Amino acid sequence: MRKIIPPVLFAICIVVMVGLWLVLPIMQFVTFPISLVGILPLIAGLGIAKRGSDIFEKTGTNIETFDDPDILVTDGLYRISRNPMYLGFLVALLGVAIVLGSFSSLLVAVGFFMITDRWYIRFEEEAMAKTFGDRYAEYKKKTRRWL
After folding, report:
1. Could you read off the pLDDT of 36-79 as tens digits, one per residue?
2. Measuring CA to CA, how many Å separate 51 from each of 78, 87, 120?
């Protein structure tokens, strides 16, 4: 079975959010033009995710979720969050939910959080612990999973 990588899940979530907004817009919690404030977290989230990715690229480490980790990155955004790319995607999805303004879109962002937290991050943390042992355990003590 081919595994869905996080950026693909992020894109799928956006498509589902828009689809639900069009077909099943459960309870509008914010209306236009106030909903445009959601553009700010959308842009900020994408920036956070990109910056996290750039740090991986700069250090030359593997960014692929299902490949073995090769370098423990603890600098930059990784001092604040162990998962800034996932955090960025989540913030961006919350921004999309605000722009769309419907509760059904917000539920998709919650679903992304749950899938990411329980599947991707859990998988990655097990691989990191196996590869980096005590160094990763110390990092986990000092740095939160999300914020």
Report:
1. 999 999 999 999 999 999 999 999 999 999 899 999 999 999 99
2. 10, 11, 19
Best CA proximity match to 13, nearest among 99, 102, 109, 106: 109
Three-state DSSP string of 4-42: CCHHHHHHHHHHHHHHHHHHCCCCECCCCCHHHHHHHHH
**Any residues with CB less than 8 A from the CB of 101 and at least 6 apart, and which?**
21, 28, 29, 30, 31, 32, 35, 38
Per-residue tokens: 144 = 């939160």
Residue 81: Cβ within 10 Å count:
18
- 84-100 and 103-115 are packed helices; what angle lies between their axes, rounded to 10 degrees? 170
Can you spell out the DSSP letters for the chain?
A: -PPPPHHHHHHHHHHHHHHHHHH----BSS-TTGGGGGHHHHHHHHHHHHHHHHHHHHHT----TTSPP-S---SGGGGT-S-HHHHHHHHHHHHHHHHH-BHHHHHHHHHHHHHIIIIIHHHHHHHHHHHHHHHHHHHHHHS-S--
